[in-house]
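Hi support team,

I submitted a single chain yesterday and got back a structure, but I'm not sure I'm reading the token output correctly. Could someone confirm the output below corresponds to the sequence I sent? I've pasted both exactly as they appear in my results page.

Thanks,
R.
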Amino acid sequence: MAKIGAKLAEMRKRRNLGLRELAARSGVSHSTISLIERDKMSPSVDTLSGILDALGTTLTGFFLDMQSTLARSPFYAADDLVEIRKGADISYKMIGINHPDRQILLLRETYAVGADSGEAYAHAAQEGGLVLKGEVELTVDGETRILREGDGYYFDSRLPHRFRNLSQEPCEVLSACTPPTY
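Hi R., thanks for writing in. Yes, this is the structure output for that exact sequence:
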């Protein structure tokens, strides 16, 4: 997994900010920032975005700058996948975060029993995926299907869509989105 903590600590210190001052500016507790800086905690996208806003940069700028510090290999071990959404019910692990000029968002998605992506959402992209394990209910523009192991999907992401795991076992999906909009 990419180690973002050292980069965040370097940015904070370069701006002569203490943990408590950054916490006050970002709305993220100083203890959480400390854990993130020591790579003891992976922040949510919202948390990282809040910290980066307080440091005067963006998620895109941060990760583009990190590209120069990451090894560039075409291979990614399971431990190298970067968690971009982690919760008790849904996990998105990103493949290829350090690839220069990345044009595809490639994810290993895990949906716990009862997981729900929430209200239908849309974004400017196209996405497709393949169910690797279990089953997931996918709704695209009001049409709903249950997809099981081996089933796939591909749709225009500008159509409202939603994922839910209504089965009694976890579900794993390999998905791709282009351009990368998440």
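A quick pointer for reading it: Residues 78-178 form a domain with the Jelly Rolls fold (CATH 2.60.120.10). Let us know if anything else looks off.

Best,
Support desk
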